[in-house]
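Board notes (copied after class):
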Amino acid sequence: MTDEFDEMYETFKAILDAFPPSEAVKRLEQMGVQPEVIQQIRDRHEQQTIRIKELEEPHAVVLGNRDTWYTGPQPKDKCWPAIEDMLLKDGWSKDTAIRNLDDSSTRVVSLLNHPKEKAFSTRGLVVGYVQSGKTTNFTSVMAKAADRGYKLFIVLAGIHNGLRRQTQARLVQQLVEPNPSLWSQLTDLDKDFTPQANPASYFGKSNKTHVLCVVKKNATVLRKLSGWLDKASDYLKDCPALIIDDEADQATVATKSINPLILNMMKSLPRSAYVGYTASPFANLLIDPSAEDLYPRDFVVNLPKPEGHFGTEVLFGRYALDGEDPDQVDDGHDMIRSVPEDDVPCVRPETKADIEGFEPVITDTLRTAVEYFWLVTAARRVRRTGNPHSTMLIHTSVNTAVHNSFERPLKHLLNRAAHALNDAVFLSRLRDLWDQETARVPAEDFGETKVPFDELVAELPGVLRSCRIIMDNSSSEARLDYENGPVVAIAVGGNTLSRGLTLEGLSVSYFVRAVSAYDTLLQMGRWFGFRNGYADLPRIWMTDELAEWFRHLATVETEMRRDIDIYMTESETPLTFAVRLRTHPALRVTAAAKMRDAVTAASSYGGQRVQTHYFHTNADWLRGNITAARNLVTAAISNAVRMEDRSGDGRFIFRDVPYDVVTDFLTTYKFHEKSPENDADLISGYIRKRVAVGSLRRWNVAIVGNPAGEPFSFIPGVSVGRNIRSRVAVTNPTPDFADIKTLMSRRDAAVDLAGDISKLTESGIIEERRRQLPDTGLLVLYPIDKTSEPGPGKKLRAPLNAEEDVIGVGLVFPKPHGGDSTVEKYISADLSGVRLEDEDFSLLEGEDA
């Protein structure tokens, strides 16, 4: 009986290729299959769909109960197995990397519509990481969709020819070449879309092949394609189409031409799915969801971070999010090198008027970066592992004339180095550089072994001989071409190198171009990605300000992904969730044109912490805060119901202090202007709103010190040891500025709770606050030693070196019982125009008429 049932289930799966699940069941009934057998078949299919829906990774937010028709590859498939074989030959592990790719691509395909549904128009978004294998993911999605009957595949591949060509080459290699008889192509390596004479030859019933079209996001090209599809509409009624929008936040969102053209194409395709792929979805999540647009209304999938991927957080570190233990948040690796602000005018014109006749100067930092690149390339040749290519990126300006001006001085530097290989002084400098860099980032931390300088020197002549200086921009003939043997190249460029394009074997980046938007900045991080065999060697030269922006961005990115994951577990849909995006004083979330539907979102302080991590270091500013803190302690003693002296443990607590003591303090204590989340007016306004509804009227004020530190006296009788909080180390520190990254520990957020708090998790502390102190806020003062030498092993930290002791402040807000009035500044989508209708289940329960 089991064999018979298995046979029947295989029949059902074969019918599923031609019909959606509900129709497939009807076919079984017409075949005379017993109802109990049909029920068993449905149960088994449901079990398989549940496995797909409940995959731990990737997380997804989905609109409604989408029919999960796709349950994974089948034995007769051809396109996906070909990709799997190729990746195995490339060294991917079957049990981890390939399995994760299989799961994540299966999840995306399961959210598309069955290709044989009569009509559909799906909108989805897949969020990955910069340089994390998104192309491989969407290629796998295309392969699996092709194996199930999708026919037309349109890939929108960025706005530059280089990326379009690179994408076409990848898709041909992974989809077309293993199964040439299954595919027809409307574009090729050198040719973007041009209208074909006879649509019937591609879409007529006699042509069973899948059709591949890889186009730039260019209005002229898309107009041609849209017009051609419109003329071919008679043949497209039965043509299931998948549109993949690579770098979906670029040029698609809120553009006058591209967006309408994509929507127009979809009108010619009655069965179509649009899936955007991006690592910077800020703009996509700010589209008005109620408009006829490309907002991902059907699903948002959050791809997991692949093992071994170098992302923003790994390189730059980030700030702790609410609910995180600061000790668990990494400072990043010691791979960022500082470019002094004085160097910037030497490598980038200061104004547009300076562009003509601009001559760059090879500064000490740029020369060091180039010399280090040659050393890295030689060391990688000694190791003989990983990517055979080696690239350096120099990105200082968007202007092509500026790029071209680098050619002569860089070639001069290369020739001089080639002639100096027998010069003891030159070799001594290279040896010192190599020893310094390999000491700062030990190879052993990445499972590698340091290459001795003497072994590396033997490879240097060959490295210098093969090194090319390439100006890769829209006006140059030269291009980075990785298709014809190993490349060693120093690439100078701008926008052609700043998005989507993979710079193979990228080891060194010199980057001083300031930009104003999160998405642009993140996408310029071509140094993110995989560094197999040389994970210890990449370095990035940039200004300290840019490094701070990337650190902020790492925090924004992590918080945004966490929001998507939280919404997934809270049964939200893409139409009801609004991802929060922290603001930054010097950066926009995305270009102004893409922000037209964005609002400043109301984000609650409830259940959150606010803490200071930026400080001025000048005496006047610091003395003002010391005075504000001493006045607060004086007022707290006068007004507290009870004072607890735990000075032996470095702590004091003043209980049940009236809220106006706290708001008075907030009018005199100065937060650093670079901390948008630490806005005294917003915090005070929030407190008053909560007071008006009967909460936050009483506060506990605590002082947290270090019992082993030098004493700091607030007022006579109230003294604790100073805390040590070192600053983030930078080579060229900004005068009068320190970033300590994190102030509060998890334990501090529970300082006023009764009982054993040592084992409480962050969520446990929030719940315990709700139980013990549901309406009481907590303000914590931290006296910080003005010198604050970093502890041993803290290589990325430097002494605080303030002119006076620093007063840090932490605020902990209880989670409110019901709703919460909100004031923290975040950018989010405006959902006000969305009409949400709850389903009416009353008819299901009512009497049958």
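Comment from the instructor: Residues 589-595, 821-849 have pLDDT under 50 and may be disordered. The radius of gyration is 30 Å.
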